[in-house]
Amino acid sequence: MQPRVTAILVAPGGATTLDKTLDGLSRQTRPPEALVVVDAGGPDSPAGRLALSGAAQLTSVPAGTSLGRAVTHALRVLGPATESLDDWIWILGDDNAPEPQALAELMGTAEVSPSVAVAGPKLMRFDEPRVIAEFGETMTRFGASLALVTGELDQAQHDVQADVLGVAAGGMLVRRHVWEALGGFDPGLPHVDASLDFSTRARLAGHRVVLVPSARVLSQGHPEDFGRTEGGHARRSRLRREAQLHRRLVYSSPLALPFHWLSLVPLAFLRSIWHLLAKNPGAVGGEFATAFRAAFGRTGVAGARVALRRSKKVGWGAIRPLRADLQQLRERRVNDRDARLALVEDAAVPRASFVAGGGLWVTLFAAVVGVIAFFRLLKSPAVTGGGLLPLDATPGSLWHSVGNGWHEIGTGFVGPSDPFTGVLAVFGSITFWSPSTSIVLFYFLALPLSAIGAWFAIRRVTTRTWVPAIGALVYSVSPPILAALHTGHLGAAVTFVTLPFLVLALSSAHRSWSAGATASLLFAVVAASTPVLIPALVIGWLGAIATRPRGTHRMLGVPIPAIALFVPLAVAQFGRGTWWALLADPGVPSRTTPASALQLALGSAETGLNGWTRLVAGVGVTGETMAVIIVLAMLPLGILAIVSVFLPTRGRALAALAVALLGYATAVLATHVQITGVGSTTTSIWAGSGLTLYFAGLVGAASITLDRIPRFSPPVGLLFAIVGVAASIPLLVATMLGTTLIQPSSGRILSAYVTAEAQVKPEVGTLVLTPQPDGSLGVSLQRGSGETLDDQSTLDSTRQSLNATSRDLTVLAGNLVSRSGYDPRADLRELGIGFVLLSQTDDGGAGDALGTRASGALDGNGLFLPVGDTTSGQLWRYTDATETLPSHQPDGALRPIVLIVWGIVFGSALLLAIPTAPRRRRARSGPVEAELPATTFDEERDD
């Protein structure tokens, strides 16, 4: 009997290639005996307007019906099958346009091989008919589906393939009785892998599945999704994983099924980590969704297992040779890597070399300057003074200060830590044997690290080989970084070092998940170190998105780690009505003398023009005269920066100048915001944080000018470098002479006597009394061996009112420094105070007078035993100190929640930031290879 073929054409919604597919069907040299068009597009679909004649029929199904259900519906329309085994159905989609010989070739293979039940054509791309869209399917050992051939130019290199595990749905020819015996496509696989699963079940039922390379069918979009191209890579990953889990549960043995079910959610966690490493974050959400759906949703696994058990006639060993082996997977990975490398082969613009271009020498110069400037810190385990204190003694204590919990500072409180505490914990973990040493190490590395970052950042926007070296030299020894190190503003120094790397990462974030994740981590570091720069950072981030909108999806997550860091602190500050306190400087509160707007423009964060006024005072030069000289010295930098906007690279210049303007505006506004308490007064935010951004923008704009001006650029660059380095001479001299606020430290905060006592009684309290210049008294309570840098909290330094315990503490201190009949024993016992420390003062005014009176009052109080003078001041011991001291308060229920959220956010960002994709090879400056003479017959090279 003549084989009978019924073509079933399914047209989903949005079909745009239906006419071409129908035209291909009409030109078949071996036409099908019948045609059923299934309209799955809903109202007003193209298929619904067809006028068919003869053996063709038109039927409809609800919009969104899967391919398998549509085919089953078409077979019901056709009526019962005949008794002949030569009744075939040919499955096509609206975007499967067959070539004239397609059906004839498929049937020719089927007629000569009675064991063939499923035959598949070679699917070619609709827009590139010579490129293979898909040719055969298989699965790995773990059940992941894999196309045997895809995206290759068809040169008949794969025409030897015949028996395969599976074929694509588009163009599939299948015996009707096999289709009905197997129940058609699995309803649990509505989108992906339905044809692979059906082919596998046909194999297990004892039939053959073959490819017919001479049968060619054009296909548009992803064949496994049957022409539906909506959604992106994340959607396809989710559908593939959902199908894989469904098949795993269906194919597994009864004994292995419980273990597969229990592994669904744990595997989702592990695979999510892999997706982040593979720079595929969009697949993470789908990974968990599919795992929970497979574990707890209605997936039809039970019915599919029953159908498989009913039709299965051979064991799984029969299809093992058809599965993908390690060699195939290895070849696929190599081909994919080569394809990615071809996309990022070379950069169009040559770039400078770090060694040949002078980057290494500038870095070495900055390192030498750093060693000479801070040589007196070389043998010290810690640094103190200004905004600095030693860190805690162990990394465990450092990390315990991170997050929400109990803070010992002051009278103690439960609340969130400053985000900068996390930066300090990372610092201290680097030199875990002595955490405070990491700060000393940073002092020596800050200048060379900033030089490296500036060199690479400037190289990104310039082409001349010597320009990055000049810019990096000026940036690395500029006043903002030296002033920050002098005054102990560690956060500002960290920001200065980090900014160039942030610019580098942010400039590539639009095209790389790794760069975007790196930018998010650096963004969080800068925000935590200098909160006053958060508005400028947000504006810069929005500007980066606006200039590269095509990469918005990769850049949207840049602020997420910083947001996660600041949310607990923001909730606390907003709760007490001091939202502006979020911008306060982290670290030890210290007084600053804000500079004027002109002095800020000249790069001086405080009055004194970065030490020039003091340096030249001995030779009779007034401050006004020095200001004029500094203005003239800053002219090269300012002129070069302004000229940049008139050059062809105007876009980059405007971006650099916008950064400078944001930094200067931040510095000016910082001098008008007084929120941090220091003793009896408040002080403004340190303006040097804004100046780091200001100088970064100016140096960047000036470097762009040097890269573009045609003549006299080397002499101008030399002048730029000389003036830039000269501007920092007073700061370097002050550092070498030891006249700065920071000093080397042994790592001990309080006296050795108190520290020894703290070894036995870690909670012993020391009441620290500090006479203020205005005659008032500063009071603080320190536990154990004293406050450390990681103990500091802006929640305490920006407090607007005293709590009950703090008020009792001030009353106690006031009575101790005056002669009265007040009995302090109850308060001393309640607060656990064992020592009283009177800090030294040398202002020669009201503070000294108060210190003298306080010393006399404490000496005359029989409750206190004088210990003597220490490096911190005069010390007394409370003779009746109790052995039972206050213990640590609980950290609160929020602490684990905060730490878990931070762990997820930063862990994900770290995994994404690890580079795994092929790196772009930088083009080097020099002659173009295409312009060089041919070397085909070069005897030396042939050897």
Question: Can you offer a commentary on this structure?
Answer:
With 943 residues, this protein is α+β, with helices and mostly antiparallel strands. Among the domains are: 227 residues, Spore Coat Polysaccharide Biosynthesis Protein SpsA, Chain A (Alpha-Beta Complex), CATH 3.90.550; 253 residues, no CATH class; 128 residues, no CATH class. 47% of the residues lie in helices and 13% in strands. The protein contains 35 helices and 22 strands. The strands form six sheets. Strands 1, 2, 3, 4, 5, 6, 7, 10 and 11 form a nine-stranded mixed β-sheet that branches. The chain has a five-stranded mixed β-sheet with strand order 19-18-20-22-21, with helices on both faces. The chain has a two-stranded antiparallel ribbon with strand order 8-9. A hairpin with a 2-residue loop joins strand 15 and strand 16. Helix 14 runs parallel beside helix 17. The longest helix has 25 residues. The chain is elongated.
Number of helices: 35
Average of per-residue pLDDT values: 84
Report the span from N to C terminus. 70 Å
* Rg estimate, integer Å: 37 Å
Major beta sheet summary: 9 strands, mixed
Spans of at least 5 consecutive residues whose pLDDT stays below 50 are: 344-349, 923-943
Keywords:
13% strand, Spore Coat Polysaccharide Biosynthesis Protein SpsA, Chain A, alpha+beta, disordered C terminus, 943 residues, elongated, 5-stranded mixed beta sheet, 9-stranded mixed beta sheet, 22 strands, 47% helix
